[in-house]
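Shipment paperwork, digital attachment
Item: protein structure file
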Amino acid sequence: MKLTREQITEQVQELLAAILGQCRLEMDVEAGIAADAVQIHLKGPDSEHFLADNARLLYALNHLLNQIFFRRSMDRVNVILDCEGYRSARDFELRLLARKAAEKVRVSGAKVVLQPMPSSERRIIHLTLSEERGVRTQSEGTGRFRKVLILPESS
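Attachment content:
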């Protein structure tokens, strides 16, 4: 049986409460439904565990939630997990980084290689620059070492 967004939201909250309880992490879980995703916001005194090492735990838990719930949802909804506003701030930072790197590529004609980042962050770079003139993007590497290259459009 496929689940509605409301059912997914409820089940994600229950699963997170169980995981946080078993790990003895003190965090509040707030959930909402957006046009294209179930959005979950974590906040609390143990936030640093989720944000350490470039939010590695946050991204890993987000990936796990999507693996569990994406195919079970009626409309293939994504779960977006955020902690203390990290993802929205990081999204802004990545868009700025992408635009600055694109300008550098246009001026110098040389490629720019960004640091390795999770697939969700690479996607933001690719989407941000998809409409930019004079540059193109591609990913290179494997696993956690995969990174985005920003190249002149002609190369």
